């Protein structure tokens, strides 16, 4: 089965964001300020969107990854890792050396495997614990 990573629109991301990150919230809750200027990427297995994430500009050489979601039926099978690896490689090739994200506390081990480091205190949003993580090449 062909697996591809490609740019997608924010509207393509929203249903998966909702399903996996905030299933009890309306679709508009998943829209982020800056979504229209962000780069959105999706990993597809054939024609099925399996994983997506969004990359928001911070400075000329820094980006923030937000709203990384993988369909529960495909989690722990390497799809999210493949998407993140390809996006990180693309950002590096573009000269982006500083990447940050706010990881759900339950996902910190995942990001540590990709060289991210905890860079802040735990905070809570809507009852979910997050921690800031950064990666510098």
Report on this structure:
The protein has about 140 residues and is α+β, with helices and mostly antiparallel strands. It has a domain at about 5-95: Aminopeptidase (3-Layer(aba) Sandwich). The protein is about 25% helix and about 40% strand. Strands 1, 2, 3, 4, 5, 6, 7 and 8 form an 8-stranded mixed beta sheet that branches. Strand 4 (about 60-70), helix 2 (about 80-95) and strand 5 (about 100-105) form a beta-alpha-beta unit. About 25% of the residues are buried.
Query: Portion of residues in helices?
Result: 10-25%
- How many angstroms separate the termini? 33 Å
What's the Cα radius of gyration?
Answer: 14 Å
Biggest β-sheet strands, sense, barrel: 8 strands, mixed
- The total strand number stands at 8
**CATH top level label of the domain at 3-96:** Alpha Beta
Helix-strand pattern, N to C? EHEEEHEHEEE
Name the CATH architecture of the domain at 3-96.
3-Layer(aba) Sandwich
In short:
With 137 residues, this protein is an alpha+beta fold.
């Amino acid at each position: 089965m062909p697996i591809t990573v490609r740019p997608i629109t924010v509207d393509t991301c929203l249903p998966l964001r909702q399903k996996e990150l905030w299933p009890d919230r309306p679709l508009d809750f998943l829209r982020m300020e800056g979504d229209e200027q962000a780069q959105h990427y999706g990993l597809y297995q054939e024609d099925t969107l399996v994983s997506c994430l969004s990359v928001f500009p911070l400075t000329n050489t820094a980006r923030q990854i937000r709203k990384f979601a993988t369909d529960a039926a495909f989690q722990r099978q390497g799809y999210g890792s493949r998407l993140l690896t390809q996006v990180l490689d693309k950002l590096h090739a573009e000269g982006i050396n500083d990447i940050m994200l706010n990881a759900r506390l339950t996902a910190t081990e995942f990001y540590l495997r990709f060289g991210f480091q905890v860079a802040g205190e735990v905070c809570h949003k809507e009852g979910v614990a997050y921690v800031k993580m950064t990666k510098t090449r």
